[in-house]
Amino acid sequence: MDKQSLFFTCIVVIVSTLLMLLAIQFLAKKLNIKSEFEKPLKISYSIWYISILICFFLFLKVASELIENSIEIIIYSKTIENTFITVMQKVIIFTGFTFFFTFTSYFLVDKILQFTFGKRSDDIEIEKENIGYFLIKAILLISFALSLITIFEHFLKWFMPTVETPFYH
User: Fold this and answer.
1) Distances in Å between the alpha carbon of 1 and those of 14, 22, 39, 75, 82?
2) What distance separates the 2 farthest-apart alpha carbons in the chain?
3) What is the Cα–Cα distance from 119 to 109, expressed in whole angstroms?
């Protein structure tokens, strides 16, 4: 473990967490969920918010491990000329797919629940304080993310830099 790769990975995790918090706020505005500004924080809103964050952190754990490994490979590679641009490409690819898998999981679970429970709007369910619905949605989202983690890891490994081993005769 190199200190440079650990430091850069920590920065990537902090920045992507902040971006995810902004993305969830944008999603809440798009879905007309206005519960974050009310004085008593609703439990259903908290469950909705935390379930998306847990799903994101499950995917980010895998991506951050691969980011750290790819940074070390790129730093010690003799064949890569511009290491900074190559590292930034890998970071953008890995965090971008983390966001993609998180929101794809969220919308797929939302569609699955629409088939099961009928068309329900999240903003109305949050205002009605339907905790059971959001617990079911959170459990489904986290379970779906856990089932996708191995697929996500193998998918990201396609984008890992290759190690060139010299063969001497």
Assistant:
1) 19, 31, 45, 12, 21
2) 74
3) 13
C-beta of residue 161 within 8 angstroms of C-beta of residue 93: no
CA atoms within 13 A on the CB side of 63: 26
Q: What does the alpha-carbon distance between residue 48 and residue 28 come to, in Å, rounded to a whole number?
A: 10
pLDDT score for 168: 64
Residues of the chain with pLDDT under 70: 1-2, 34-39, 164-169
Report yes or no on whether pTM surpasses 0.85: yes
CA-CA distance, 19 to 136, in Å (whole number)?
Answer: 26
- pLDDT at site 39: 66
**Burial group, residue 124, by CB count within 10 angstroms (0-12, 13-18, 19+):** exposed
